[in-house]
Amino acid sequence: MRHSFESGADVTAKLDSLSDQLAAAEKDFQRKDLALTMSAGAKAKMPADEVMQAWNTEYLPRYRAEVFSPLLDALEKARDEYYRAYAACAASVKAIEDEQQSVVYTLDPNYGRGNRYIYKLHTPDYFSKTAAHVIKPEDIQRLALGQKPVNMDTKGGA
User: Fold this and answer.
1) Which residue from 79, 83, 99, 129 has the least number of CB within 10 angstroms?
2) 35-39: which pairs have CB atoms within 8 A and are 24 or more residues apart?
3) Alpha-helical runs (H) found in 108-136
4) Which DSSP string do the residues of 73-129 spell out, in sequence order?
């Protein structure tokens, strides 16, 4: 300020910037102090309504933005990929089952018309209850409880 008066230079922009930096530093200090207070369990240092307000207006929104939202985005992306892969697999199963029927009718054009002979052509079992690649409700329940699903592949680092 004194330099401004002596030289006649306008330093209000610099003062505004320093004021903004000071306000940001004070807010950062309060946030860190709150985190330290909450982690130390010092209940008497901050009134409950301030803790509640800080939780609702600062901590939880920041947690959602920095941690939870990216995880939800990853889950949605994985879900969509899974649905696409599942649909492609289902289409391939339908195609092989159609081909199987074609083979049966090639072997016996009268198949199904009172013919008692059953051709023992194996059918793909891609969607059975024991298929490891199908996500089952019990897998989701185990994950929700913090447990590993029975068929979870640990090769990927999970």
Assistant:
1) 129
2) none
3) none
4) HHHHHHHHHHHHHHHHHHHHHHHHHHHHHHHHHHH-TTTTSS-----------TTST
Tokens 């004194």 sit on residue = 2
10-residue stretch averages of pLDDT, the chain, 158 residues long: 57 68 76 72 69 92 92 92 88 88 81 66 69 82 88 56
Distance CA 83, CA 96 (A): 20
Q: Coil, strand or helix: which one is 108?
A: coil
- Per-residue tokens: 2: 């004194």
Locate 31 and state its tokens: 């946030």
- End-to-end, the C-alpha distance of the chain in Å comes to 59
Question: Does the pTM of the predicted model rise above 0.85?
Answer: no
Distant-in-sequence contacts of 114-120, Cβ < 8 A, 24+ apart: none
